[in-house]
Every structure is written in structure tokens, then in C-alpha cells.
Amino acid sequence: MSSKGTRKLFHWIDTARMRFRMAAGGYHKFFARCRGVEFLGSCMFVGRPKFKLYPGTRVIVGNGCKFQSGHTDNLIGINRPCIVSVYNPGTVVRIGEHTGFSGTVIGAFAGITIGNHVKCGANTLITDGDWHPEDPRSGEPRPIEIGDNVWLGVGSLVLKGARIGNNSVIGANSVVTGEIPANVVAAGNPCKVIRALVERAPRKNP
């Protein structure tokens, strides 16, 4: 077989594998519903995510969301499945429409709201608490709000009390602990505004 033929064969194998994993998404969605996740429309699962809802908590997922949990489902590399866990009675995680996750971990103790069309890059973490409430050094959890059309770069962390405005971009491996306004590029630890986003005219076809 020629080199070109070999590439076509492996492309076909990769495509077939991905379609099979996507077809299995209905199975994963069924078990997510059994665990209490509320879906407001269609949702795509590639690989097996993990949902854990404690009594009195809620996870609400908007239409058109996508969860990628396999190591190569995002070719930048995913080192864990998507995990959503919700603690403390009354705590709610709300996810808007057409939002995507790649190996994203969400841990909620007070409440997390994620907008529409949000891109969560590979291995991002969103958590509103310190995870050790029995330790006197831990502070109180504080809600997180992420606006519409936000892009979280690979490996970024969004921590308790963070608020990110609409259309902002968070650089790779950044740590967001405060408020990031709308329409900016921000990065670093702690995450700070680097520049404003300038609205560009759409490209014209040649």
C-alpha cells in the first residue's frame, strides 16, 4: 500500500473511532440524567464524563453543549475526563447553550454560572471553593460567573469569586481570582488584563 493509501486508511480508522465514541454519547447522557443532571436540549459526549451531585444540588446543561473526555478527543491533549461535582444543598451549576469542555473539572460549593458559547480549553479547572472546609485555613466558597463567548485557554484555572465578562479571552495556564471585564485578553497568575479586544470587520472572500 502506498504512503497516500496508508494515510487514508488511518484517517478512516480515526474517523470511524470518533463516530463510534460519539454514538456512545447517548449512553453517557442517560447515566448523567440518572445522576440528576438536567439537560435542556441535545448534548454531545465524546468519552465518559463523571457527574457527582450531592442531595439538594443541581446541574443544568443548555442545548448544544459538548463534553470531550478522552485523551485524544482534543488533539492538544486531555489528561483527565470531564468531571462535574456539586456539594452543599442549594448549590446550582448552570451551563449555557453551545458551550464546550475538554477534560474540564467543575467543582461547586456555592454556585457556578457559565454562559453561552463558552470554550473551555483542555484541562481547565473551574471551582468556587477550597475543597477542605474542615481545615480552618480554608475560606468560604464564593460563586463564579463566566459570561457569554468567553474562551478559557488550555490549563487555565478559574477560582472562587471570579467573574469574567462577555467575549473575553483568558490565556493558557492563567489563574483567575478576581474580576475580568468584557472584551479583553487577560493572562497570568494572578490573571490581569493585557489588552482590549478590537472588533474587526469580517474577512471577505477573495
Written account of the structure:
It is a single chain. The mean pLDDT is 89. Strand 20 and strand 21 form a beta hairpin. With 206 residues, this protein is α/β, with parallel strands linked by helices. The chain has one domain: Hexapeptide repeat proteins (UDP N-Acetylglucosamine Acyltransferase, domain 1), CATH 2.160.10.
Give the ordered list of helices and strands: HHEEEEEEEEEEEEEEEEEEEEE
Overall mean confidence score, pLDDT? 89
Q: CATH superfamily name?
A: Hexapeptide repeat proteins
Strand order of the largest sheet: 2-5-8-11-14-17-20-21
Determine the CATH topology.
UDP N-Acetylglucosamine Acyltransferase, domain 1
- Proportion in helices: 10-25%
* Class based on secondary structure composition and strand pairing: alpha/beta
Distance between the termini: 38 Å
Low-confidence stretches: none
- Round the Cα radius of gyration to an integer and report it: 19 Å
Number of strands: 21
CATH architecture: 3 Solenoid
Name the beta content range.
25-35%
CATH C-level: Mainly Beta
- Structural shape: globular
